[in-house]
User: Which sequence fits this backbone?
């Protein structure tokens, strides 16, 4: 179903009050496929109604503070703990150089600008996510309505199979209670407990309010991170993908990442 | 029949107390880990599975190896195994219990373990691993107990147990195949992404399990009046010899593919394990120990003169056990995480709490094994 639950209940509730047609809405909703079919009528063939994606234009990051502003915005709004020990570190959005972002894709004579550039890394919200495939409890799952790979922190048993499966190292585990490592927690977003896995959620909670992802908003001046719907031909992400040469991380893994990088030119 | 386990010599009780003591230390260490989280282990963001999962993987193999007694005895009517088939089944029971405990102590949120059953997920290999391990545990307890009870009354085992016994054969293969699939189905881990993983697992299992069983038979002969007999031990020794040969052969196939193809990502883990990578070489001494021991064990097992000498055979079996434990435990699990998906290297060393918890689980396993063997052996002694 491409409507989210909250939205569906709102509409159903409202229509019950207004015209008593709520029953019909609920029945339609329960049948599910009707809504799916009508919603995807504008999409092509089997494609979902919407597929959210990110384009990172690394040319536009000019200095360290521009990266840091995005990272801070993300980590702040999601109560990501700041843990110094790299072994226990938790990160949703971070920097990495070309060699380690795209292992095996560089060479010794490559352009220095790209070679020494830092890339923004995050969960790729893959079309075929290996983490979702392996999770034994569906604590990580792919949202049908927009393709976001979500986490249910209350269902995760902490087996870390998803961490072994993710080809992008995008997942962090809470090796300890993270709450002591968050200064000024954001009360609008849950903190996590020890023993569960977490990662970028494409700001699902902000999208629901009609806001852009925190990192995208933080770099709105240089537009280094652009977010949008791949199913919408006229979206900004489609426009950039159409007009620039972009690469994905480890395309050979068969996951079809939804984060794209503009690297030069 | 359990009453047999509560009467025993001083040595028996001293052994039981020792195991209880070690498991007690393990339980206390686990409470410490439970309270502070898995940060008390040596695990990290990059090496997110370690010593616990290594033991789990190795012990699934030990459990599966009971089939090496069941096939000859029940399918080929090899009567000589009649006396020891129960020892194989009970070894499987204790090994599976250890497997389950090792998974449990590895969980970040162990209180939620039932979520695996509450939200059954057929596309997750871990879900199937749980099914096959639970099933195999049930089958072996059920078959072992029924056959032993019949033997005690000196009657033939009931006919209806046969289908369960036949079922246990493919089931044993399945537990290790599914466990191999946990690793070989992951897209980003080059060291594990190999079709030969399951055969390699089975080969090392059929070497390590029967090797342990030979040692256990020799111990049983020394501490009780029950003698498993020379011939079944020799047959087991041949099984170990063939399986260990296949195991080493499969490993060399991996080495060939990685280095002749020249694909760096296929070589990195092997390089890390055997030569060290970019100055990181924690596991190198361990892996060479495993490799050298493996070749020594082959020499001792293949030459009939050595194999037929039970003292040498015992040494060879101990060597097989240690070599496969290093290779399939730490080598396989930790090697798969190094280098990480960014091709950076984070090394791993288990910590003291991690070791104590691990010893604790092994002690619980041996406690179960001792009690089950005590029952089986006492009944054999009674019957003379």
Assistant:
């Amino acid at each position: 179903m491409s409507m989210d639950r909250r939205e569906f209940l709102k509409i159903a509730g409202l229509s019950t009050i207004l015209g008593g047609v709520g029953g019909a809405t609920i029945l339609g909703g329960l049948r599910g496929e009707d809504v799916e079919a009508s919603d995807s009528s504008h999409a092509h063939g089997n494609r979902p109604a919407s597929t959210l994606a990110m384009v990172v234009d690394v040319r536009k990051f000019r200095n360290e503070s521009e990266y840091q502003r995005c990272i801070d915005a993300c980590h702040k709004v999601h109560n990501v703990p700041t843990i110094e020990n790299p072994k226990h570190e938790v990160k949703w959005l971070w920097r990495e150089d070309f060699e380690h972002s795209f292992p095996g894709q560089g060479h010794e004579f490559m352009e220095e600008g790209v070679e020494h550039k830092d890339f923004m890394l995050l969960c790729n919200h893959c079309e075929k996510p290996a983490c979702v495939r392996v999770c034994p409890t569906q604590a990580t799952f792919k949202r049908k309505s927009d393709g976001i790979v979500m986490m249910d922190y209350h269902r995760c048993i902490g087996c870390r199979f998803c961490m072994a499966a993710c080809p992008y190292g995008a997942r962090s585990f809470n090796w300890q209670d993270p709450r002591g490592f968050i200064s000024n927690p954001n009360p609008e977003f849950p903190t996590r407990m020890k023993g569960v896995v977490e990662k970028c959620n494409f700001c699902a909670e902000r999208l629901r309010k009609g806001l852009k992802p925190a990192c995208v908003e933080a770099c709105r001046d240089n537009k280094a991170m652009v977010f949008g719907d791949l199913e919408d031909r006229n979206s900004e992400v489609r426009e950039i993908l159409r007009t620039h040469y972009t690469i994905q991380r480890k395309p050979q893994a068969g996951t079809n990442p939804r984060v794209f990088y503009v690297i030069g030119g | 029949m359990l009453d047999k386990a509560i009467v025993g010599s001083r040595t028996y009780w001293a052994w039981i107390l020792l195991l209880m003591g070690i498991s007690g230390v393990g339980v206390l260490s686990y409470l410490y880990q439970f309270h502070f989280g898995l940060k008390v282990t040596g695990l990290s963001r990059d090496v997110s599975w370690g010593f616990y999962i290594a033991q789990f993987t190795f012990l699934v193999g030990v459990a599966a190896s009971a089939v090496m007694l069941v096939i000859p005895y029940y399918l080929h009517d090899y009567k000589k195994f009649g006396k020891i088939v129960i020892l194989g089944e009970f070894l499987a029971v204790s090994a599976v219990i250890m497997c389950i405990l090792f998974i449990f102590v590895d969980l970040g949120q162990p209180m939620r373990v039932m979520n695996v059953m509450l939200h059954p997920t057929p596309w997750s290999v871990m879900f199937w691993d749980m099914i096959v391990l639970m099933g195999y545990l049930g089958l072996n307890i059920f078959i072992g107990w029924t056959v032993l009870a019949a033997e005690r009354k000196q009657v033939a085992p009931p006919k209806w147990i046969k289908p369960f016994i036949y079922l246990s054969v493919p089931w044993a293969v399945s537990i290790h195949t599914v466990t191999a699939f946990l690793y070989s189905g992951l897209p980003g881990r080059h060291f594990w992404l190999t079709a030969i993983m399951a055969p390699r697992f089975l080969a090392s299992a059929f070497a390590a399990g029967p090797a342990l069983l030979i040692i256990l038979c020799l111990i049983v002969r020394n501490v009780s009046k029950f003698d498993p007999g020379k011939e079944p031990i020799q047959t087991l020794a041949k099984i170990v010899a063939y399986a260990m040969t296949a195991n080493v052969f499969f490993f060399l196939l991996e080495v060939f593919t990685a280095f002749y193809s020249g694909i760096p990502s296929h070589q990195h883990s092997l390089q890390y394990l055997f030569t060290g990578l970019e100055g990181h070489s924690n596991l190198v001494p361990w892996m060479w120990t495993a490799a050298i021991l493996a070749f020594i064990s082959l020499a001792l097992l293949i030459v009939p003169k050595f194999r037929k000498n039970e003292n040498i055979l015992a040494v060879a079996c101990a060597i097989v056990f240690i070599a496969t434990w290093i290779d399939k435990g730490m080598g396989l699990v930790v090697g798969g995480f190094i280098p990480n998906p960014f091709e950076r290297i984070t090394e791993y060393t288990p910590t003291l709490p991690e070791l104590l918890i691990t010893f604790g689980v092994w002690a619980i396993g041996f406690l179960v094994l001792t009690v089950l063997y005590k029952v089986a052996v006492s009944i054999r002694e009674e019957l003379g």
Q: What stands out?
A: The interface with chain A takes residues 36-39, 43-46, 48-49, 103, 106-110, 112-113, 115-116, 118-119, 121, 123-127, 130, 182, 185-189, 264-265, 336-337, 340-344, 346 of chain B (CB under 8 Å). The radius of gyration of chain B is 21 Å. Chain B has one domain: 2-383. Residues 2-383 of chain B form a domain with the Formate dehydrogenase/DMSO reductase fold fold (CATH 1.20.1630.10).
